[in-house]
Amino acid sequence: MTPQQYVQEKAAASGSSFYYAFLFLPPPRRAAITAYYAFCREVDDVVDEHSDRGVAAAKLGWWRHEVEQTYAGSPTHPVTQALHPLAAAYGIEARHLLDVIEGCQVDLDQNRFLDYAALQRYCHLVAGVVGEVAANIFGRTEAATLAYAHQLGLAMQLTNIIRDVGDDARRGRVYLPLSDLQRYDVKVSELLARAAPWGYSERFDALMRFEAARAHAAYDAALALLPAADRAAQKPGLMMANIYRTLLREIEAQGFQVLHQRTSLTPLRKLWIAARTHVRGA
Hints:
Layout: H1 3-14, H2 17-22, H3 27-49, H4 53-71, H5 78-87, H6 94-109, H7 116-138, H8 144-163, H9 165-170, H10 178-183, H11 188-193, H12 202-225, H13 235-253, H14 267-280
Helix pairs in contact: 1-3, 1-5, 3-4, 3-5, 3-6, 3-7, 4-6, 6-7, 7-8, 8-12, 8-13, 12-13, 13-14
């Protein structure tokens, strides 16, 4: 299997909404974003798939070394071998890879976030930086497009957090800021226990409506930041925004039933949203 085949299979197997946006890119740009996304998946899997913290920490250390080796011209992993020849052309720097690793290190080192500022820093590492790289690969002419990309990354990561409250709780993780929980009198223990009736309450509903409103505000802020000159080039990002925001609205329509189930959109629906955005341009 070639490095290019490896990253293609890694991206496709994830089932992520990102994959559907990649399909509309010209081959060179699609190759670059697929390789970078595969890198993000590899590093993220280190934390998700290893319950032994020592093993996970050692693997993250290996990836840091691999990034250094890659930018010294000697990649050894199929992902970095696929990414390295494309990095310079699309402005993919070592820091863009190391920040993602640092975000996974945060996942490894803590499972609570004191306030929204702490959560924003985490979102910057695992989503904002990814948005920056994606915007560069898609093609941009304006510096303001980077601000848009970071804000969109935040919005999408907040959507992930809302969707995954129950899944994260099963792993002992709570990404919703503790200050928000305190504001709405929702206990961490309630989320972790997911006790009958699944921890749902008026307090929980109010908390989740607040979190959803914050995510919607982030989407609105991102779209307002996108310069008209770059709107056409950034259509893949707009596809992802529309897919993720549709998911958020689906969760809202279901009454935030996120403690006992994981809401998702079908592949066909994701593809339809991406195609519609491609045609309409928004």
